[in-house]
Structures are given as structure tokens and as C-alpha cells.
Automatic annotation (TrEMBL):
<dbReference type="Pfam" id="PF00561">
    <property type="entry name" value="Abhydrolase_1"/>
</dbReference>
<dbReference type="InterPro" id="IPR029058">
    <property type="entry name" value="AB_hydrolase_fold"/>
</dbReference>
<dbReference type="InterPro" id="IPR000639">
    <property type="entry name" value="Epox_hydrolase-like"/>
</dbReference>
<dbReference type="InterPro" id="IPR000073">
    <property type="entry name" value="AB_hydrolase_1"/>
</dbReference>
<feature type="domain" description="AB hydrolase-1">
    <location>
        <begin position="25"/>
        <end position="263"/>
    </location>
</feature>
<protein>
    <submittedName>
        <fullName>Alpha/beta fold hydrolase</fullName>
    </submittedName>
</protein>
<dbReference type="GO" id="GO:0016787">
    <property type="term" value="F:hydrolase activity"/>
</dbReference>
<keyword id="KW-0378">Hydrolase</keyword>
Length: 290
């Protein structure tokens, strides 16, 4: 994908983004350590399907700004980035599609901004309410989140010996070669790790849990049976947090990076889902009193 990115300033950070096509808007949100490039197989398919596709490099990634403070990466801040982006681009109620951290942001956006979302599709990562009390099996699978918590130390160990440890964690998955180039940019590795430090630190589990508002949007959850980082329980358990129509799809033979591992299947699922259910909130005219 060689699409030229545009840049907009929101919440004191510059966000680079792709904006293609016409029609109902779809916003694609990537995770760690990706950028909008993750969606290179989905963007043309969705554009051809009649959608306007907006894919930002979220703060800390790609060509977007990379604040170095941990507190700059709280979930609420990043949701506010997405809301501000929609407002800047004149988008009132988009479809939202997220993968990895992008899925976590999409979930939060959906239950905090129910009148500003149409359909929700989440890949690999289930509702934060499920992840708030992970099983010991899930804790073991996501051990790296704990390793990422040590500022300076994590960065040094990941870079040591030609990024050996990082390569062992990622394996041959995703855009593994591209990640090394992207994370070598000034401030990029710390910015990416700060997503985990701001939102998945052990101390975060000690905070009093608040009830999550229900997700009212029609929601599609997609999980690959080869995902080594996130277990299926995270996605299958998400339905209880969705008050709108809920659908779950298990993709055989795909790992964590579903948009890359199974692009045709993901495209088919998205095109068959977006816009097909009744939106969470339809515009209603107030009744006239006689």
C-alpha cells in the first residue's frame, strides 16, 4: 500500500492517517507494534465495497507523534484522539474496526460513545471486562506485558544483540521485519511500550473496578485459533458485555495478526457485517404532541 498519508493535529499530537474512498465511514485501528500499514489488504477491499476508509497511525506509532511520557498513553486519552479525529474529518457515526490495542480502544469507544458509532468489529482482543480478571492461562500467554513494564530496562534488553529478544517474542508473525525498522525511529520503542505501562501495569489491577456500560452497537468478534498471545476465552466471554447484536467468528489456521494471516476471510467477514444490522442509535425525530 503506497497511499499518501495526511496529518491532523488532535490533543496536542500529530496523527498521520490514510483517508480513501467514499460512502459510510469505517475507521481502522491497529495495535502494537503496527501502523495503518497493517490494514493494506482491508483498505482497498472496503473502498471497493463502497466505504470511506480512515486508518490512522495511533499516537506512538508509524508517522504519528510519539510523546515519551507514560501518562500520554492512557486509554481515555487515545479514545479522545479517535473522537477528535472523527470530528476533524466530519465523521459523525463511523463503523469501527480494531485489532490488538486498536480493538481495546474500539471497545472503549463503543461503550463510552454509543451515539457516535454504527457497527463495531474487534479482532483478537476481547472486551476489557473479560481481561480485567484474566485466567492463569491468559496471564502465562501474555507474560511479555509484565516484561514491558520496566522503563529503560525493557528497551535495552529488547534491542540487545540485534533485537534478539524482540525477535524471539514476535517470531515470524506480523510484519516482523518492518517492526524493527519502525521501532528504531527515535522514541518509537518507548512510545510503544508505554501503551502497556499506562494500561496493563500490575498496579492497574488494584484499582477499584467500575461497571462497564453495555455495548449497544452490533458487534463482530474475530479470533484466530493460532493466536499465541490471547486466548479464545477473551473473545467468547465478550458477548455478555454486548447488548446489541453479537456475533463471533473463529478463523482456523490464523494467528494473532488476522488482517495479514487471513486477509480474504477478514475482508469477507467485514463486508458481510458492516452496515447489515440495525445501527445502535438511529436518528429519531421527536414526536409532535397534538
Amino acid at each position: 500500500m503506497t497511499t499518501e498519508k495526511k496529518v491532523v493535529r488532535v490533543n496536542d499530537v500529530d496523527l498521520a492517517y490514510v483517508d480513501e474512498g467514499e460512502g459510510d465511514p469505517v475507521i481502522l485501528l491497529h495495535g502494537f507494534p503496527d501502523s495503518s500499514y497493517l490494514w493494506r489488504h482491508q483498505i482497498p477491499a472496503l473502498v471497493e465495497g463502497g466505504f470511506r476508509v480512515i486508518a490512522p497511525d495511533l499516537r506512538g506509532f508509524g508517522d504519528s507523534g510519539k510523546p515519551q511520557e507514560i501518562e500520554a498513553y492512557g486509554m481515555q486519552t487515545i479514545v479522545n484522539d479517535v473522537v477528535a479525529l472523527t470530528m476533524k474529518l466530519g465523521v459523525k457515526r463511523p463503523h469501527l474496526v480494531g485489532h490488538d490495542w486498536g480493538a481495546a480502544i474500539a471497545w472503549m469507544y463503543a461503550f463510552l460513545m454509543p451515539r457516535r458509532i454504527d457497527h463495531l468489529a474487534v479482532l483478537s482482543v476481547g472486551h476489557p471486562g473479560v481481561f480485567a480478571t484474566p485466567s492463569i492461562e491468559q496471564r502465562a500467554a501474555s507474560w511479555y506485558m509484565l516484561f514491558y513494564q520496566f522503563p529503560g530496562v525493557s528497551e535495552e534488553l529488547l534491542r540487545r544483540n540485534g533485537w534478539r529478544l524482540f525477535k524471539e517474542i514476535i517470531g515470524r508473525d506480523g510484519d516482523h521485519d518492518r517492526y524493527l525498522r519502525d521501532l528504531a525511529r527515535p522514541g518509537a520503542l518507548t512510545a510503544g511500550l508505554n501503551w502497556y505501562r499506562a494500561n496493563r501495569s500490575p498496579a492497574a489491577e488494584l484499582r477499584p473496578s467500575r461497571p462497564f456500560p453495555p455495548v449497544l452497537a452490533p458487534t463482530l468478534g474475530i479470533w484466530g485459533d493460532g493466536d499465541k498471545a490471547l486466548l479464545e476465552e477473551g473473545m467468547t466471554g465478550s458477548g455478555k458485555f454486548v447488548k446489541g447484536p453479537w456475533r463471533y467468528e473463529r478463523v482456523e489456521g490464523a494467528g494473532h495478526w488476522l488482517p495479514l494471516d487471513a486477509p480474504d476471510q477478514v475482508n469477507k467477514l467485514l463486508l458481510g457485517f458492516l452496515g447489515t444490522e440495525r445501527p445502535a442509535h438511529e436518528e429519531r425525530r421527536p414526536r409532535r404532541r397534538l
